[in-house]
Each structure stands twice: as structure tokens, then as C-alpha cells.
Specification:
Blueprint (H helix, E strand, L loop, with lengths): L1 E2 L8 E4 L2 E11 L7 E8 L5 E7 L3 E4 L2 E12 L2 E6 L5 E5 L14 E7 L5 E5 L3 E9 L12 E6 L4 E5 L7 E5 L4 E6 L2
Antiparallel strand pairs: 1-6, 2-3, 2-6, 3-4, 4-5, 7-8, 7-10, 8-9, 10-11, 12-13, 12-15, 13-14, 15-16
Length: about 190
């Protein structure tokens, strides 16, 4: 058992007969009244996100998990195949367990959180950012750069991302996996 002071991003806990992962949290100590912890929890079974407030000091049931590095091999319908980088065992996961499956390219290394009680995978943590090649984008309009203008671009995984006007087909870009947003152009 843990308390609300142990809450941190990535913590897995049992709540309302389901397993949740803490996405965001904020300890609040108002001037009047007791302290509390405001959280955003993501269900690892359904993928739904809910907001919840815990009173300070409340006991929560945390789940013992271990993390392992896996390499993404290939998608197959709604299934994604991964290989453990240490013992080369392969596992297949459903698409809804992944946070950003549209940004996952073959060969990418991800961290999979596994429940130690039953050895079942709970969630897949993507790297902070991925480098993807732009496969299609329109030409930027010259002189349209007075504001922070963007245009849609399709990357090698099939995802569409808004990029600045100076990005062309064939450019490699760094994409934030949490927001699915353009970060910078990558020079080779």
C-alpha cells in the first residue's frame, strides 16, 4: 500500500476494480481546507482517461511493475508485434494499449510496463520523440511567413503532422510522441 504522497507520473495503481496509470498529478494545498492530489488517470484496460481527486494521506493500492525494452517489429491489423531486446522473445499487443501507434516505425525501441503479478503487459511507453521522414507535403506559399504558419505533412508511418512551411518531402523531422507535434528538422 502507498499513500497519495507516493503519486508520480507513470505510477500504476488499482482503483475502482481496474488498473490505472497516472498521466498527470498536482499536489494542492489550499489556504483554507485540507490538502488534496488532483490526478489524471488512464485505464490500462479500456484506454479511457478520467480525472480524480484524492484527499491527502489517503491509502492507494499501487501495483508492482517492471519495465523491459522491446523493439517494434511490424503491425498486423489491430495487433503490433514486439521483440524483447534481451532474450528475443516476441509478444503481440493490441493497438489500443499504445499511446501513439501512428508514430511507431519498425525498429523503434519502446519500454513496455509488465505487471509482476501475472506477467501481462500493461502499457507501452514511447520514447520522448521519434525521427520520421516526410513522405508528402504541399509546397509552402512564399511570403506567408509573417505568422507561425504551418501546413499538414504525411510522415513515413502514415501519420499527418502540422509542420512549418519550410519543410519539404524527404526531410527528416523530430516529432514529440506525447502531443504528436513537430519539434524540429533533423540534419543528417
Amino acid at each position: 500500500m502507498a499513500t497519495t504522497s507516493d503519486i508520480r507520473n507513470g505510477l500504476c495503481l488499482r482503483y475502482n476494480n481496474d488498473i490505472f496509470k497516472v498521466i498527470e498529478f498536482l499536489h494542492v494545498k489550499p489556504g483554507k481546507g485540507p490538502a488534496f492530489v488532483r490526478t489524471k488517470l488512464k485505464s490500462l484496460s479500456s484506454g479511457k482517461v478520467l480525472e480524480n481527486t484524492f484527499p491527502a494521506g489517503r491509502k492507494i493500492e499501487d501495483i508492482r511493475v517492471e519495465t523491459q525494452k522491446f523493439q517494434f517489429l511490424y503491425p498486423e491489423g489491430d495487433s503490433f508485434h514486439f521483440m524483447n531486446t534481451e532474450d528475443y522473445n516476441q509478444i503481440t499487443l493490441r493497438k489500443d494499449i499504445l499511446d501513439a501507434p501512428e508514430l511507431l516505425k519498425e525498429g523503434e525501441i519502446v519500454t513496455i510496463i509488465i505487471n509482476t503479478e501475472d506477467n501481462l503487459p500493461l502499457s507501452v511507453d514511447m520514447p520522448q520523440s521519434v525521427i520520421l521522414e516526410v513522405t508528402h507535403t504541399e509546397q509552402g506559399v512564399r511570403g506567408n511567413t509573417a505568422t507561425n504558419a504551418t501546413k499538414p505533412a504525411t510522415v513515413e508511418t502514415g501519420a499527418t503532422i502540422n509542420v512549418p512551411l519550410f519543410i519539404n518531402e524527404g526531410d527528416k523531422i523530430k516529432v514529440d510522441t506525447a502531443k504528436g507535434a513537430y519539434l524540429e528538422r533533423v540534419k543528417e
